Amino acid sequence: MLYLEDYLEMIEQLPMDLRDRFTEMREMDLQVQDYYKALEDADEKVQLANQIYDLQHL
Question: Is residue 9 over pLDDT 80?
Answer without folding.
Answer: no
